[in-house]
Amino acid sequence: MTTAQVRLTITIAHQLPGRVRLILSHVPRDPDLMVHRVGRHKGIDSVEFNRMSRSMLVTFNPLEVSQAEIVVRAACSLSLDRDRVPVRILARAETRDLNDSAFYSGLALLVALAARPVVRNATTHLYLNWSAGLVTAGAVLSHGWQDMRLKGYFDPEVLSVVYLVAAMLRGRFLSPALVTWLTTFGRHLFKPTARGVEIRVTRNPSGSGADERFSVIVSPDRHDTSVTKFLRFIPAFVQYAVIGGAGITESGLLGAIRDSAGVHRQVLDGLGDMNYGIPIRISLVESCGGS
């Protein structure tokens, strides 16, 4: 995988006052240098990196340094370690509630429904109905299995597959399959994508070596690789219409980072040997996921 294709992520796995554990998507090329860069700030007591679990444990004095600044320091250090590839910061582990099998089963249902007034061949109808029912049953079971692996339990909505199987044994396919699909996946269909924050490190023209100058751009991130992402704009549009685009700056990671940057006059100081610090700019424009 080339540098441009790498997607770096830091997830806040556990947090307590004065203690935070971060999970990195990739092991740094130079873990010792990253630990040095993160830990060189007043109030940070220790930084420990575990290569096997890709976790970084930071203990600190919250009266002298904020957790938000620690996370930004880690993201900037990881980005510099990987040739300034953008880094996503997530407050929780990312999950995919509506997987690809749900999309394709929904597509099979739409094809079967669209064929009803057009196709006159009864055998074709039967084939399409059976296909829609079986694919839907498979998608629901896959969804339940995914829940068991990630959460240790599955939601009761998965039990709708029992209704579908019973209906199919009685020769009813399309309507039960549609009801089962909506029961299982309906609430996930328009669920907004989890928001994160993206850190971009850019090089300034002046400076070199130990005094090399960089700047940091912090922006909201709406990265989503699911084939159903084209449906996700609806709740975001509703939220924008109701509370306006500035709402995201008042809460969550972006707000915490903004507040932390304000304390230091928009400068991330003491990052390793960069004596001049790194200016931070908060952008409300969402990133596009590229480097």
- The rounded Rg comes to 24 Å
Mean pLDDT: 75
Q: Strand order, biggest sheet?
A: 3-4-2-1-5-6-7-9-8
Beta-strand percentage? 15-25%
C-alpha end-to-end distance: 14 Å
Provide the number of structural domains. Answer: 2
Quaternary structure annotation: single chain
* Coarse morphology: elongated
Explain what you see.
It contains eight helices and nine strands. The protein has 291 residues and is of the alpha+beta class. It has two domains: 3-94 and 195-282, no CATH class; 100-189. It is elongated and about 75 Å long.
Fold topology:
Blueprint: E1 8-16, E2 19-24, H1 31-39, E3 44-50, E4 55-60, H2 67-81, E5 87-90, H3 100-115, H4 122-151, H5 160-169, H6 174-189, E6 196-203, E7 214-221, H7 233-243, H8 252-263, E8 267-268, E9 278-282
Parallel strand pairs: 1-5, 7-9
Antiparallel strand pairs: 1-2, 2-4, 3-4, 5-6, 6-7, 8-9
Main traits of this protein?
291 residues; 9-stranded mixed sheet; disordered C terminus; alpha+beta; 9 strands; elongated
Summarize the entry for a quick read:
This protein is of the alpha+beta class.
